Amino acid sequence: xxxxxxxxxxxxxxxxxxxxxxxxxxxxxxxxxxxxxxxxxxxxxxxxxxxxxxxxxxxxxxxxxxxxxxxxxxxxxxxxxxxxxxxxxxxxxxxxxxxxxxxxxxxxx
DNA sequence: GGAATGACATTTA
DNA sequence: CTAAATGCCATTC
Length: 109
Description:
Elements: H1 13-23, E1 30-31, H2 32-38, H3 44-53, E2 65-66, H4 79-88, E3 93-94, E4 97-98, H5 101-104
Parallel strand pairs: 1-2
Antiparallel strand pairs: 3-4
Helix pairs in contact: 1-3, 2-3
The chain binds a DNA duplex through α2, α3 and β2.
């Protein structure tokens, strides 16, 4: 691979994503769009890709990230698991979609 | 250095 | 509202 060596003090794209993820309060959710927007980029899909790496699902609540249309999206451990975790935190879902998703949506403002 | 991939988004039909 | 097609960005092979 053409890794350019790690001399960057700034966090990598995925690292930044994780940092933002950890800021999300319990019972709230966010979207890939909002996340990317917070990072001043439009790499919505890249954000998801960062989650796919999922180096530390323990520290990072990846399950609190959903699609901008309110759909659950995907999850490394499976959609079922993601929904279950969300429900456990008080986020109601229905047919793979977030209920009152706009209310629970956490923007990094 | 280039092609392929993905936990997406937006627009159009 | 649902479904399909197109675009986008960063990362990996």
